[in-house]
Amino acid sequence: MRCIFCKCNSTSSTSREHIIPESFGNKEHLLPPGVVCDRCNNYIARKVEKPLLDSPHFKEQRFNMSVPSKRNKIPTIRGIHLESRTLIELMKRPDEDEIAIGAALGQDESRWIQTLTGQRNGTLIIPVASPPNDYTISRFIAKVGLESLAFHCIQVEGKLDEVVDKPELDELRSYVRIGTPGKVWPYSCRSIYPPNFLFTERMSEK
Asked: How far apart are alpha carbons 164 and 153 in whole angstroms?
């Protein structure tokens, strides 16, 4: 078996590749060991997926939809308590609907508490984060596209080798596993479904 990105022998690889990262809630759509070699798997996790997962926009989306990380933690988001001028953090726990609010690390917690107890009303300002830069999203989409193609070719004998050997895909695989700073593959971005829309396997069969 050869890796779909670097084309090297990946027979001894042991890691399974999540087409959509597990920290985005995906636990079902995976590629078996060897389709993406351990080296490329590690690189993609650090250089392609992590910048997206760590961006304020996607942390905000994961917080709003209560999507935990692989360590079962939901990202926190930050805002400002206007009256005390305190940087605050909003926190959630998996499987709980409540939101906990507290002073962010390094803030004057006593001032925050004193202001809360001394006033009946207050204002929290939670900034809305913009999506990360086009380069980050473009590389991620390229990664998902090539892995989705491999996912559909696994069951057909010889088709995965065809994906690896296809010269027309070389520029795409290089864009993912090496990157080309400053070059953004064009993509279209628009909302089709609401953020909390739930997809099911039965829907894909229609």
From this structure: 11
Q: Which of 113, 138, 117 is nearest to 51 (CA)?
A: 138
CA–CA separation, 7 vs 5, rounded Å? 6
At which residue do the structure tokens 């491999």 appear? 150
Residue pair 169/95 in contact by the 8 Å Cβ criterion? no
d(Cα 168, Cα 190) in Å, to the nearest integer? 27
Whole-number pLDDT of residue 100: 93
Task: Say which residues have a Cβ less than 8 Å from residue 117's Cβ, sequence separation at least 6.
Answer: none
Mean model confidence pLDDT for the chain: 90
Residue spans of alpha helices (H) in the chain: 38-44, 50-53, 56-64, 109-118, 134-153, 159-165, 170-177, 201-204
Residue carrying structure tokens 């909390």? 196
How much of the chain, in percent, has pLDDT values that exceed 70?
Answer: 96
pLDDT for 28 beyond 90: no
Nearest to 91 by CA among 104, 108, 109: 104
Asked whether the predicted pLDDT for residue 191 surpasses 70, the reply is yes
